[in-house]
């Protein structure tokens, strides 16, 4: 059962403070390799929760997140590069961009905004499609964006990509945007706007007959998901310090969809938990794959888990429900106090 909406804010504040304490401990005691793994887990949480807005809340089947990550990543990277380096690397940049050097946060917001603008432009024709037709169309968007990145050599350096970027992403930035993503998506889901989206997912014709602007709501969810994916792309790029047209492939799109489907289409809690579990499982299996020369074993295990879950629980682990994890964790303390 999900917590009542009027108790969400204090519970969220408690969880955020506990998370901040854990982040501080990790930042002070863990080595850079482990910190980078935790940051990738956080990025997967942002991607899974943001895709849930599109695929879970309103029932679209979009595979376009890597395209929006590419857009957001390139925009953020170009904006933070110093002007003297841009002149050498990117000779075809417009003059107003070539002279700019933005700080990290505005660059991330700009990257997300441009990704949202691309989603808005693409959304009008693409979101007229349904089901697997929409999936194929959004999958094609990945290849279109990659083709632009390859051919605009004077703006993106083409297939060479942008390397040697400043390592601006850290655990605190990832944690901050995880909190923002979860908070915004939770509040959206439990608002009248979110209930409208869920109604469209359950019965689009009935919602339309009741006066719901279905096309407008579909575009809104698509744009919001793209904005958050663009920010995740900017964080990702400044964590690995490079970006190329192939940085975010269609394989990543399926991995994010798996997180949403396993957790439950519409469940924010489920998306977070599955993103953490799958990210950790992938990291644990990687040394085994390399030692046994069984590359791709983790993907086979994940595929098997997906099949089992879909057979036993077609709506995912939680469906659209939000289990009260904070209450569950605090239950032992309540029992001891009552005793």
UniProtKB/TrEMBL annotation:
Keyword list, A-Z: Cell membrane, Membrane, Transmembrane, Transmembrane helix
Membrane topology type: Multi-pass membrane protein
Subcellular location(s) of the protein: Cell membrane
Pfam families from the UniProt entry: BPD_transp_2
Membrane-spanning ranges: 36-53, 60-82, 102-126, 133-152, 172-188, 219-239, 251-281, 293-312
PANTHER family linked: HIGH-AFFINITY BRANCHED-CHAIN AMINO ACID TRANSPORT PROTEIN BRAE, HIGH-AFFINITY BRANCHED-CHAIN AMINO ACID TRANSPORT SYSTEM PERMEASE
Protein name, as recorded: Branched-chain amino acid ABC transporter permease
Lineage: Bacteria, Pseudomonadati, Pseudomonadota, Alphaproteobacteria, Rhodospirillales
């Amino acid at each position: 059962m999900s917590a009542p909406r009027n108790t969400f804010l204090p519970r969220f504040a408690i969880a955020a403070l506990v998370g901040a304490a854990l982040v501080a401990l990790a930042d002070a005691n863990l080595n850079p390799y482990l910190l980078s793994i935790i940051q990738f887990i956080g990025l997967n949480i942002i991607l899974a929760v943001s895709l849930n807005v599109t695929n879970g809340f309103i029932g679209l089947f979009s595979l376009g997140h890597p395209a929006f990550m590419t857009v957001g990543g390139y925009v953020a990277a170009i904006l933070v590069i110093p002007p003297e380096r841009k002149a050498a690397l990117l000779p075809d940049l417009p003059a107003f961009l070539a002279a700019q050097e933005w700080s990290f946060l505005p660059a991330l917001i700009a990257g997300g905004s441009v990704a949202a603008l691309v989603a808005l432009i693409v959304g009008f024709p693409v979101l007229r499609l349904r089901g697997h037709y929409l999936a194929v169309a959004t999958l094609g968007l990945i290849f279109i964006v990659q083709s632009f990145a390859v051919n605009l050599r004077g703006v993106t350096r083409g297939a060479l990509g942008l390397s040697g970027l400043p390592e601006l992403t850290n655990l605190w930035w990832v944690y901050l945007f995880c909190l923002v993503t979860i908070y915004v998506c939770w509040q959206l889901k439990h608002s009248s706007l979110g209930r409208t989206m869920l109604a469209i997912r359950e019965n689009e014709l009935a919602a339309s007959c009741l006066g719901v602007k279905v096309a407008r709501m579909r575009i809104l969810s698509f744009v919001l998901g793209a904005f958050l994916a663009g920010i995740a792309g900017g964080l990702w790029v400044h964590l690995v310090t490079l970006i190329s047209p192939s940085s975010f492939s269609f394989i990543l799109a399926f991995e994010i969809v798996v997180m949403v489907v396993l957790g439950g289409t519409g469940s924010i809690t489920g998306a977070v938990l599955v993103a953490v579990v799958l990210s950790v499982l992938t990291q644990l299996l990687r040394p085994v794959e390399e030692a046994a020369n069984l590359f791709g074993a983790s993907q086979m295990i994940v595929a098997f888990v997906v099949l089992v879950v879909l057979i036993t629980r077609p709506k995912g682990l939680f469906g659209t429900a939000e289990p009260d994890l904070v209450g569950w964790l605090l239950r032992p303390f309540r029992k001891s106090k009552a005793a």
